[in-house]
Request: fold
Amino acid sequence: MPKAYSQDLRDRVIDAVAIGEESRNGAAKRFGVSASCAIKWVQHYERNGSRRDRGTGGHRPSAVRQHRVWLLSQADADSSLTLQSLCERLQAEHGVRADPGILSRFFQSEGISFKKKRVAYRTGSTGRRAQANSLVSTPETH
Reply:
């Protein structure tokens, strides 16, 4: 994995462009960095006034967690709720886009899972399932 460029090199490229000595491409060639790298460094400096590296990656907290109380109340209020319908409600009411996988992980962390009900399978025809899986609380195993 390549190493990050030094702060000194970043400063020299930004100074060469900011003072007006060279263009971004010229400074990149002079200091031996890619043109896109020099362009991004100078843009970041012009927009934010910062010469420091922005960093890479990192953890981005889930937007779903902010609506924990609402999600749990929805699960309690409607036992036939599906993850897909909950995704649609979350989008409509709070403007938060989530897919069923995200909500599945959220509910698993809260101790709630989808459980198949054997009675529902015996009552319907074998060709079609009329009911969706519903949310059910599970006991803590920790």
About this structure: The beta strands are 112-115, 134-137. The radius of gyration is 26 Å.
